[in-house]
């Protein structure tokens, strides 16, 4: 346990000491809010049926619709890129020093995932500084509900990142693979656009994408979906369904827990095998 905590603490401290990384992490969310949120607000509102006086989205700003996706993007990118430190530790020899210590490889893997998850939660919470500029009302109870959900999502994505990192030897290869993976997962999650009118084959990808359920949970919490009218929820795509069954918030949590267990097991096994060879 001491080994897990030590590795966890190391990754968190590295994040807070890297000011360039801390400040630079705002660039992409801010760009998406400006370009897709403000710039395409009118067009997207028309596509979602909210231009008329009686439209379900007549009083709704597309920036507000997009904000939970921005939070999801911050958590997702931070957690999956946290596994880059594993590859860098391999390159610079630090990982070899850890492996000769009495810490088990499983403890190293779990410490890395927990460190990446903690950093991702902090990054997600930092996105709340945009709230006063977009008109959303977010109180303390919403933030307290968000934190465990963000940690669960970050844990799943950090495990996926570790699984990928354990099979690669260079940071360049890791970044290339992640760039190929990250944007399809984001755009097929409903983070920026409603998940309606998609071809059948693409809809399958949407339903097996873990980020789809993560973004949907963020939307239900931040936008307070329980207080929306059925028409508004339908227009915003908050009635996520699989095989004609509408997925509840509890079912999404259970899905992410199951995904987290699967990926952390696969990541620890892969990490152990890779370092043993």
Automatic annotation (TrEMBL):
Pfam families registered for this protein in UniProt:
ABC2_membrane
Q: How does it sit in the membrane?
A: Multi-pass membrane protein
Q: Does the keyword Cell membrane apply?
A: yes
Mind telling me which GO cellular component terms the entry cites?
ATP-binding cassette (ABC) transporter complex
Q: Where is the protein localized?
A: Cell membrane; Membrane
Which parts of the sequence belong to the ABC transmembrane type-2 domain? 20-274
Which Gene Ontology molecular-function terms are recorded?
Answer: ABC-type transporter activity
Q: Which UniProt keywords apply?
A: Cell membrane, Membrane, Transmembrane, Transmembrane helix, Transport
Q: Does the keyword tRNA processing apply?
A: no
Q: Where are the transmembrane segments?
A: 20-40, 65-87, 108-136, 142-164, 176-195, 253-271
What is the similarity comment for this entry? Belongs to the ABC-2 integral membrane protein family.
Instruction: Give the PANTHER family listed for this entry.
Output: NODULATION PROTEIN J
The name under which this protein is listed is: Transport permease protein
Q: What is the species listed in this Swiss-Prot or TrEMBL entry?
A: Paludifilum halophilum
């Amino acid at each position: 346990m001491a080994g897990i905590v030590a590795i966890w603490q190391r990754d968190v401290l590295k994040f807070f000491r890297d000011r360039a990384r801390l400040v630079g992490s705002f660039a992409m969310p801010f760009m998406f809010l400006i370009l897709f949120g403000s710039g395409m607000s009118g067009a997207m509102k028309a596509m979602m049926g909210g231009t008329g006086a009686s439209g379900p989205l007549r009083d709704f700003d597309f920036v507000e619709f997009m904000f939970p996706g921005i939070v999801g993007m911050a958590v997702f990118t931070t957690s999956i890129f946290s596994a880059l430190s594993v590859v860098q530790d391999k390159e610079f020899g630090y990982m070899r020093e850890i492996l000769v210590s009495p810490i088990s490889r499983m403890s190293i893997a779990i410490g890395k995932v927990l460190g990446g998850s903690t950093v991702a939660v902090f990054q997600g919470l930092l996105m709340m500084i945009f709230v006063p500029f977009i008109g959303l009302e977010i109180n303390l109870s919403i933030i307290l509900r968000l934190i465990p959900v963000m940690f669960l999502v970050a844990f799943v994505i950090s495990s996926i990142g570790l699984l990928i990192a354990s099979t690669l030897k260079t940071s360049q290869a890791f970044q290339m693979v992640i760039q190929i993976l990250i944007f399809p997962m984001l755009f097929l999650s409903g983070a920026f656009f409603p998940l309606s009118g998609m071809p059948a084959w693409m809809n399958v990808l949407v339903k097996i994408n873990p980020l789809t359920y993560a973004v949907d949970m963020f939307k239900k919490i931040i936008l307070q979906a329980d207080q929306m009218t059925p028409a508004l929820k339908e227009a915003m795509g908050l009635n996520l369904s699989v095989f004609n069954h509408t997925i509840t918030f509890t079912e999404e949590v259970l899905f992410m827990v199951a995904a987290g267990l699967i990926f952390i097991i696969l990541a620890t096994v892969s990490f152990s095998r890779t370092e043993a060879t």
